[in-house]
Amino acid sequence: KEDEIFEGNIMIENESIEFDLDKNTLMPTNFHISYKNEAHSLIEELMLISNLLCAKFIYSHLKKFALIRRHPFFNDKNYSEMTRYFSANKIYNREFNDMIEINKILKNIKKENNNEYMCVQQKLKFLLLRAEYVFAGKFSQDELRHYSLNYDLYTHFTSPIRRYPDMI
Fold first, then answer.
1. pTM exceeds 0.70
2. Which of 68, 96, 117, 143 is close enough to 139 for a disulfide, judged by CB 3.0 to 4.6 Å?
3. How confident is the model over 136-160, as pLDDT tens digits?
4. Do 68 and 133 touch, CB atoms closer than 8 A?
5. How many CA atoms lie within 13 A of 102 on its CB side?
């Protein structure tokens, strides 16, 4: 099942640092790295699917005025930098065409060297173009693609900070 989840969308892991606090002074006494657990991953996956289905529904009924979140693939400069980075670090020596291929690269790196994996993820975060909201009527359907999620259409119906009704 894990392979199916990672097959389409790029999953950049967001680890966070959590601090243990002294009960009296509330000053940090220690820290640890916090990772997503299975419940977080399940909720995230269900939210993504919900947002995808809402985007398809809205687009099918309000094609011209649908507010869609698009995420273009790398621009030429960033694509060249990513391929240069892969090649220079002996990670991958061919061109890549989509997020599915990048996910396979990431999966292989993670198996072999977690530190290298974390570095590549940081590089990807830096080089990926920013997603943006657009009115669907101004773009062809191919231009509406959310490449990092590998979805043809996407919107934020469920996000507490970017809910679709709030965006409108």
1. no
2. 143
3. 999 998 899 998 888 999 998 877 6
4. yes
5. 23
